[in-house]
Amino acid sequence: MSDEEEMLDAIVVGFDEEGRIIASLTSGGADTDLSKLKGAEAQFEDTNGVIWRGRIVEVHGDALVIDFGEKALSAEEGASGLGQGSMIRIPKP
Has this prediction a pTM greater than 0.90? Predict the structure, then answer.
C-alpha cells in the first residue's frame, strides 16, 4: 500500500465472537459501495509505530469485519492499542 493512495478511515466499534474486528467507516466512505471492500487490506498502526495488516473478510450493512489474525490480538506480542475506538486505514477501491 503506497502513501499516495487515497485512504478510507474506519473506527473499531467492537469484536465478534471469533476475535475479529468490527469497524465502521468514519470519513470518505459516503459514496463507497462497501461490498467492494471485501477482500481489501486494512492496516492499523499501533502505539509502537508497528503497522499491522489485516483483511476485510465480511461486510454487514455498514459494518466491516476485519481479521488481523490471532497474533495481533495476543496480550503478549499483539498490536498495542488495538481496541474499541482505534483507527483503521483502508485503501479506496
Answer: no
| Across 38-51, average pLDDT | 94
**Residue 41 cell numbers, joined:** 487490506
Tell me which long-range contacts 13-17 makes (C-beta under 8 A, separation of at least 24). 13/63, 13/84, 14/84, 16/65
CA distance 87 to 74: 18
Residue 65 to residue 17: CA distance in whole angstroms: 11
Residue 87: strand, helix, or coil: strand
Distance CA(36)–CA(29), nearest Å, equals 12
Report how far residue 91's alpha carbon sits from residue 77's, in angstroms, rounded to the nearest whole number.
26
Q: How confident is the model at residue 93 (pLDDT cuts 50, 70, 90)?
A: confident
Q: 1 pLDDT exceeds 60? A: no
Task: Determine how β-strand 63-67 pairs with β-strand 21-27.
Answer: antiparallel
